[in-house]
Amino acid sequence: MSYRSLVLATAIACGALTLTPLSAKEALDIEAMESALRSQDQEAVLKALKTIRKSKEPKAAPLLDSLLNRGGSAPVLKAALKAAGKLGQRSSTHAVGPYARHRMPEIRRAAVQALIRTGGPEAVQILQLALRSNDGRVRGIAATGLGSLAAHESIDDLMTAFDHGVAEAAAAIGQLCLPEECEDFAERVGQAHFDVMTGGFDQILFRPTKEMPDAQKLRIIGRVRELGTSEAAAFLGDVLERWPSDWSKKVKQALQSATKATGGS
Amino acid sequence: MKNLARRLTTCAALSFAIACGGNSAFGDKAFSQNWQNDGGESIAAVYERVQHASMPTGTAIALGITKSELTGLMLNGKGKWKYTGPVDERPVITGDVVVTVGGGQLTALDAKSGQPLWKLPAPKGQLLGAGDDGSLTAMSFTMGAGQGSQILVVDRGGSIVQKMDVEPRVGTPALLGGVLFVPWSAQYVTAIDVESGKEIGRMLVRSQVSHALNIGGSLYLGGRGLLRFDQRASKASEHLGSSVLLPERELPGKPMWLHDGSMAQTELATAKDKIRLYARPASTESGISIEGNRYMATYFRVVLGMSAVDGAVAWAKTTEMDVLGGDAASGGFVICDVGGGVRVLEGKRGGETLKLNIGHDIDACIVQAGDLRIQGGGDTGPLSQQMENAILLEASQMVTMQRFLLRELATREDPEVTKTLIRLASSPRTPPMLRDDASGLLAARRHGAEHMLAALESRYDYLEGVTRIPPVGALADALAAMKEYKAASLLAEHLGDPATPIKDVLRAARALIKLGSSEEYPALQLFFSIHRGTASDEDSVEAVIAAAQAMAKINPALSGPVLKAAAKDSQTVAGVKNGIASLTGG
Fold first, then answer.
1. Which of B502, B528, B571 shows the shortest C-beta gap to A76?
2. Is residue B35 packed enough to be buried (19+ CB in 10 Å), middle (13-18) or exposed (0-12)?
3. What topology does CATH give the domain B271-383?
């Protein structure tokens, strides 16, 4: 640690200097941050973490990793995990990962949230494990994360999670499924609550045609139309409203027809 | 005798209460408190007189009792009978006769057919017991508090051949060879010549005697145990009689083999009837023993077959309804439940050989096994499984018995028992108190390590539907005590599983102080680091300290800097700092 950093850290610790969030253009003083994160004053550490988070400076990620490896108080760990997520460096996944199984629920939830941003194969593995957790909120966040990380290898687990009541798995399935898998998901209409299913249908319908052929989208619309309920009508009407003007006309017509048939406007 | 009988019959016809008041002609002499122990002389003479006399072996019958009817169910499965009429007192079965009191009448029924044999006006007191020799029926009654007892002997025609109002409270009488045997004052059995009404012998039995019983055609005197009336009866006062006791065992509800025969039983069954012991004496070359070396204990819905040698549980059976009564037979037992269900059980393994039904719910039940001989009985499965079934029986009043069974189960060294204890300690179906007991017994267990290791491999897995968490703490204690080093890696994995309760994590960390190696070091350090600043309760703090202790033991060089840094860090919680001070030289 340089003399400058030491002075800076001491000043922060003693409250003589207040760390303020940097504007986007200001460079983050890594050495000062490192000193601050090693301070015995928790407030100083929390301020440094806020600064790092606001800076979004990737170079600060190793500082966070180091802190997480050392451990700390609950407020510090939560702030560190939040900052690591904000920085979103894949290298942080290794340091963040163990916190997904921390004993404090809010810390493990913060860790799972952060992993979605740090990403990488290791994050996917941890999220897959988190999907099996005894913490319902962790399962929900993990399901969302697997969708966000495009972890198609998790599709079977997500289907199971959905069948076991993890509602967030619907949207993830909608993001990841291949046409036949989407059809498999759609077959759950009538068994699962429709409003939960719509999270998945919405994702499927708004995926680009190169990923999800119109034929599959039409099948989904057909299934929803068959329901004939007011909820189905409301959903179809909502999708129709949001349907991009330059997207498939065929799908749009199907949406219009289905909306009308189910009593929507 | 004929004249006497005629006179008494007439007397009975007029009224019991008024015409025959006062003691019988022999009452003053019999049951004298001034009797001097004659060293068995008089009772030896009585034995000489009756030794070749016989009693009926007794109808094998289950008697279902409600307030308005009796149902006799033949235990050979060949029919049943019904007697309708008020039932005000607990009936008695003796030999081939059922004696019942109701609506002011004392009635004797043929046990095989239910047909009335005779009816007499009921005495004022309550029926205590009865004995029958095939032609005469003797009955004892209370006379109210502190007012002694009444004894009646009635022949098949309903004639009273003997009636005695006596000072002491007597128990259940028996008849053999024209001699009436009457236990009294918990230590005497007086023999009375039925015809003359004179006391012709007396024996001193120092075992709370209150029953003279016909069991399978032989006369027994019962109290704490049974004493056979044979050539050694004269030596009973010197404890040299042919007697048998059940092994002394603390059983839930303190069940008794024979109730106090000098106390009238309630007409409806109570908890005492549901918590009972049943055993049948058997002759041996040297005296008597317990038939098949088995006795049976009932406790509401649990029935146990017990070893008559050491009192160990030999089999356990559960029933759908409370057991109200039963009896021990040659080769097994009979039980009778609230729903009228009657089951015949083979004695050795408790296998059911016959299931019958009285046909309706009942308020009380009496069974006389009589000459029933039980054979066969299907496979009842391993004892540990039978006990587990009883332990998991869902009924609140069963907890005392279930805890007893759990302790009993744990005394067995069979590794399968370890498996059962693990299941009980982790099953959501197990009542919390029993789960704690099972965990405690598991922690103290030193057998079945393979099952313990297998259990530790199980993890909470929402997707696989595995929501049952193994009793990690108990397993950790047991495996550490057994120095089972194979457990270390599995225990280390549980440190990092938030689904494992913190109390169990603490015990796992402590076990790792003994069992851990360099392979577990990374898991220990990770657990320590990420929790040293967040441990918010005593168990968490202790778990973090235990992890630190394990780290220091496994690798002092590697752990030293980590622990020192943690000890200095203001973010490490105070409890952890204090706990690791000795490890860091602080």
1. B571
2. middle
3. Thrombin, subunit H (2.40.10)
Q: DSSP label at B422?
A: H
Q: What is the pLDDT of residues A129-174, one digit of tens each?
A: 999 999 999 999 999 999 999 999 999 999 999 999 999 999 999 9
- Sign, CA torsion B271/B272/B273/B279: positive
B570–A42 CB contact, under 8 Å: yes
3-state helix/strand/coil string of A214-250: HHHHHHHHHHHHHHCCHHHHHHHHHHHHHCCCCCCHH
Tell me whether residue A93 is in a domain: yes
> Phi/psi zone of residue B465: left (φ > 0), alpha (ψ -120 to 50 degrees), beta?
left
A160 touches chain B (CB under 8 A): yes
ipTM of this complex > 0.90?
A: no
- Is the Cβ of A161 closer than 8 Å to some Cβ of chain B? yes
The total number of structural domains that make up chain A: 1
Cα A170 versus chain centre, distance: 14
CB distance A132–B461 less than 8 Å?
A: yes
Confidence of residue B36 (pLDDT cuts 50, 70, 90): confident
| Chain-chain contact of B526 with A98 (C-beta, under 8 angstroms) | yes
Question: What ranges do the domains of chain B cover?
Answer: 2-12+38-59+95-244, 271-383
d(CA A208, CA B57): 93
Q: How far apart are the first and last CA of chain A?
A: 68
A174 is a domain residue: no
**Any chain A CB within 8 A of the CB of B274?**
no
Q: Does B533 touch chain A (CB under 8 A)?
A: yes
Give the integer Cα–Cα distance in Å for B509 and B488: 10
Can you tell me the distance from the alpha carbon of A48 to that of A8, in angstroms, rounded to the nearest whole number? Answer: 12
CB contact under 8 A, B497 and A164: no
Dist. CA A173–CA A150, nearest whole Å: 10
Residue of B nearest to A78 (CA): B534
The size of chain B, in residues, is 586
Please give the pLDDT value at position A20: 52
C-alpha atoms less than 13 angstroms from C-alpha of B23 in its C-beta half-sphere? 14
B530 to A160: CB separation less than 8 angstroms, yes or no: no
Mean pLDDT of B339-361: 96
Neighbours of B407 (CB within 10 A): 12
Q: Look at A102 and B569 and tell me if their CB atoms are within 8 Å.
A: no
* Residue A48 lies in domain: 1-22+30-119
A-B CB pairs within 8 A amount to: 80
Domain at B2-12+38-59+95-244, CATH class:
mainly beta
